[in-house]
Amino acid sequence: MSSKIYYLKTSRIGKKKVFLIVLNTIKSSKEIFEFLQENTGRTCLYLSTEIYPKARLEKINFIKNSPEKLVVVSTQLIEAGVDIDLDVVYRDFSPLSSINQTAGRANRNGVGQEPGEVHVYRLKHEKTDAYFHNYIYPVFLTDITLDILENKEVIQEKEIYFLNETYAKKIIEKVSHDISKEMLEDVENFDLRKLRDSFELIKKDYAFKRDIIIEADPECSQIIEKLRDIKKKEKASKNPWNIVLKSKTCSVS
Known about the structure:
alpha/beta, 9 helices, single chain, 7-stranded mixed β-sheet
């Protein structure tokens, strides 16, 4: 591990703290989670896209409402749309936009007077010596981030805006002169997450991609039966929009 960075934010911190550990790959997140389960007496929770959405939501609600001082291990899915507030965050290295998103999970509610912490590390594969962030993110984005954070041991919250501004400017300098107008607007508007997603290494529109339904509990089973019934009844009408509309509004009464 190297390149340890601190993002300091005001947070509620007592003698015991709530921890969030964010890894870049599912495999590394599972390994850390299993290690913590075996080597700590704390309650550990795991989040990743391998957990179906309903179960993820239940875990997120538990994290938000639990009086326990939990240890949460997650992949980068924690970055967007997850409203939880933790004291200390450990993050495997990523582009600056992702670090910012993760930092937003420390002191999300702005409670307390003592500083919270976001620690950033660069984790390597034990055998190949390759950084995990290179499996996920475009190299030029992580290189720019490394350049910006070089030799910085502690970063105060008031410095983050300037760092983001520098990050955006360096991206403009790096990319081709024929960069699209939309991407330039993303940079000018500091929409760094949208910009990062523009450089995804693996396109998401696979030809073989299919939606699946996981029959995880009795409620799921009831909904599946209702969907089958809707499809059967509406198929005769030869109007696919009826099936789509009723399927979207299908629920257990």
